[in-house]
């Protein structure tokens, strides 16, 4: 799975996710990537989110929307909300991670498993690439 | 205004434990190219939607990642692609599931969002919509990579043994 979240000069957030699915999947199984609110969500009032991991758990936890709701209703920061939703995934037995970007340009990249590839670019031109682990 | 871009390359089956220096360089270069593409769009005043689509298209076209050209195989030996996009300004959204012939599913998801009254399309109907919307269609062979094919053969073998070597294996 790959994904991207962005904040533009006009203050608009967007999120996208794309996946080739799961090796050996059967029965037309669909994961979280195409499910709005599970693997992808964007709202200018809060955050843009793209997830990756064990899709069933992201769907059951409505992870991307949950992150936004935690910020909107509970006032959590993007980092706190990200950590919270990934813990929920882990508590149910799922694994994965996500990228999130709030309306002010603060980012979070929480995860609970290895093999995570991440990258970011900020207004000052700084590009960061992170591979864990 | 502030502008920021973040990307991910998935929950990979390749970790630092089984990654060579060449592989790490290839992943890093691919992620950096995608970021530079999106950054250039944002820097020149382009929209976050355009940046998201452009970044993901580059990763879809790169066989290193499980999306687009690098898609993994289903049990019956086909590739089925899913994608979605959402606009934070309008809360509009578009998604496609189980498409087999669309080169860049993220572009199709955006077309669903912008050129149809629907949010999600699946399978053959989504492919028909793609053709009508002028989205690039490719032969299913385009998505085949040796790495993904071998991954399916390993999974089938493990399936037949009814045991997984690694409980953290993500199968893509």
Number of helical regions of chain B: 5
- The number of E-state strands of chain B comes to 4
Order of helices and strands of chain A: EEEEHHHEEEE
Strand content of chain B is: 5-15%
Secondary structure: helix percent of chain A = 10-25%
- Mean of pLDDT of chain B: 93
Low-confidence spans of chain B: none
Mean pLDDT of chain A comes to: 96
Structural category of chain B is: alpha+beta
Q: Major beta sheet of chain A, specifics?
A: 4 strands, antiparallel
Radius of gyration of chain A, CA atoms, in whole angstroms = 14 Å
Indicate the proportion of strand residues of chain A. Answer: 25-35%
Note the overall shape of chain B.
globular
Radius of gyration of chain B: 17 Å
How far apart lie the N and C ends of chain A?
A: 17 Å
Task: Please give the alpha-carbon distance between the first and last residues of chain B.
Answer: 37 Å
Can you list the strand order of the major beta sheet of chain A?
3-4-5-6
| Main sheet: strand order of chain B | 2-3-4
How would you sum up this structure in a few lines?
The complex is a heterodimer of chains A (133) and B (172). Chain A contains three helices and eight strands. Chain A is of the alpha+beta class and 133 residues long.
Please provide a written account of the structure.
The complex is a heterodimer of chains A (133) and B (172). Chain A has three helices and eight strands. Chain A has 133 residues and is α+β, with helices and mostly antiparallel strands. A four-stranded antiparallel beta sheet of chain A has the order 3-4-5-6, with helices on one face. Chain A is globular. The mean pLDDT of chain A is 96. Helices cover 42% and strands 15% of the residues of chain B. In chain B, strands 2-3-4 form a three-stranded mixed beta sheet. Strand 1 of chain A pairs antiparallel with strand 1 (4-11) of chain B, so a sheet runs across the interface.
């Amino acid at each position: 799975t790959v994904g991207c979240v962005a904040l533009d000069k006009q203050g608009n957030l967007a999120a996208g996710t794309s996946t080739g699915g799961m090796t050996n999947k059967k029965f037309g199984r669909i994961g979280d990537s195409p499910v709005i609110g599970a693997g992808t969500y964007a709202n200018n009032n809060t955050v843009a989110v793209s997830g990756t991991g064990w899709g069933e758990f992201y769907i059951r936890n409505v992870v991307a929307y949950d992150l936004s709701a935690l910020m909107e209703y509970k006032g959590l920061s993007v980092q706190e909300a990200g950590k919270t939703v990934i813990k929920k995934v882990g508590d149910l037995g799922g694994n994965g991670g996500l990228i999130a970007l709030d309306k002010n340009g603060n980012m979070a990249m929480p995860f609970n498993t290895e093999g995570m590839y991440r990258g970011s670019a900020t207004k000052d031109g700084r590009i960061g690439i992170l591979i864990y682990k | 205004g502030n502008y920021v871009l973040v990307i991910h390359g998935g929950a990979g089956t390749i970790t630092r434990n089984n990654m060579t220096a060449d592989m790490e360089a290839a992943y890093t270069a691919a992620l950096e190219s995608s970021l530079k593409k999106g950054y250039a769009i944002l820097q020149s005043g382009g929209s976050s939607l355009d940046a998201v689509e452009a970044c993901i298209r580059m990763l879809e076209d790169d066989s290193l990642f499980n999306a687009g050209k690098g898609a993994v195989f289903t049990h019956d030996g086909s590739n089925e692609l899913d994608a979605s996009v959402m606009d934070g300004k309008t809360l509009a959204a578009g998604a496609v599931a189980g498409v087999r012939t669309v080169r860049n599913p993220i572009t199709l998801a955006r077309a669903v969002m912008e050129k149809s009254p629907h949010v999600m399309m699946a399978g053959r109907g989504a492919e028909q919509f793609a053709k009508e919307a002028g989205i690039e269609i490719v032969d299913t062979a385009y998505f085949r990579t040796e790495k993904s094919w071998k991954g399916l053969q390993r999974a089938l073998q493990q399936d037949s043994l009814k045991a997984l070597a690694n409980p953290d294996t993500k199968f893509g």
